[in-house]
Design a protein that fits this description.
- By secondary structure, the protein is α/β, with parallel strands linked by helices.
- It contains 15 helices and twelve strands.
- A hairpin with a 2-residue loop joins β1 and β2.
Length: about 500
Amino acid sequence: MEIPFRIFLVFALCGGASAVLFGHRAHNPGVEEQSKSYEYNTSYYDVLVDHFGFANSDTYAMRYLTSVTHWDHNGGPIFFYTGNEGDIAWFCNNTGFMWDIAPEFKAMLVFAEHRYYGESLPYGTDSYKDKQHLDFFTAEQALADFADLIRYIKSTVPGASNSAVIAFGGSYGGMLAAWLRMKYPSSVIGSLAASAPIWQFTGLTGCETQVQIVTKDFRKASPACAKNIRKSWDVMTKFGKTESGRQTLFTNLRLCDPLKTSSDVEGIKSWLSEVYDNLAMVDYPYAASFLEPLPAYPIKVVCSYINKTEPSDDQLLLDLANGLNVYFNYTGSAKCFNASHAATGDLSDEGWGYQFCTEMVMPYCSDGVQDMFPVVKWDEAQEAAQCQKTWQVTPRPQWINLQFGGKDIQAASNIIFSNGQLDPWSAGGVLESLSDTLIAIIIPEGAHHLDLRAKNDDDPPSVTKARETEKTIMRQWIKSYYIDNKTNFMNNTNVKL
């Protein structure tokens, strides 16, 4: 068991109707499902593998999902979801906000799958074969796919030629939604970029900021919990030095696989760190199946098991296991914890691993003083060496900043950046409005893109207010578009714009 470097595999995070527990699908009747089963049509569109060269004329079938149930065929707007790093059906079923507001906007819904994920594989089973087949796996190519699909829909669907298109996305998908508006402003009139850390890159945001937010979340739930988690790293290091100690870790933490070396123990520490990050992202005010089936405010529940005052080393490990049980075994079906698994199988760790090693270089570090995590230093050279070993590619840490403008994006317009203050990824988000049309919305009680999830009776007032603000802004965009283009949609619909 070796986890040589840490990649946030769960970056997309759009919540799943089902979760993968140790290789088995499981459902817990005690967890209210926030993801719903929506009716949509599945289609495929042949797009170029390489939009930016002329030597390669290969195409692939890009999957996209549509719903026209509430769409006004006389030029009603199109809400377009920019797919993340996973199966697009998962995102479709878990972006309830779009489904909730489609009737009042009389909107068509489109969910486009990101290349190299789900069924949208440019070279089928050979897509991940080698770096030559992976060479077209970039955000730029994906954005071109989305722009081409929008053109195709508007040119082939009767009644859509004059439709206003608004992009939606959460997390990496939110980054893509923002970048789509920046790069292809004629394709979308505006974008809602929820929990989109477009500034979580080299030179823009400190590598320590994410873990500090996670620590703050845990301290808010229980100061003793955060203190005990910080103490646990030294305990694990101590136990990891001997065979008997590693056996104690294996037993007390209820692991599936034995710990044979101290390197295995370091892997466990990395795995646990990722679990704590995930809990902060999905600290929702209601029970939900997201990364895993979890209760409302899962950090508070997890911390209820790890809040003893000065527990012994053995007791602390047992307490950690009880806390992990909330995350990994809320269904009650798991007999042990699989340290190779930290989130739903609907996300592609393989695909995001490659993106991390090329463009999506997001520095991460912790000091164990200002945060509750083990000391982890960001070593760009070490990360590059690991990427060469794994993918035979070298990361370009400055490329995203160069390609999309870094923090100098004031020339763009019509983008809403929404962020929840409980969300560790808000550290790299746009937290203050940059202009009258680059608008930041802060959700104090919000975790990872809570505003994109379906409305819930337990939603805090701040997310309800945020959604209303988002709708008001989008109405303004749509109204301006139809006035500027002199279309008759406004005159033939009762949509309140």
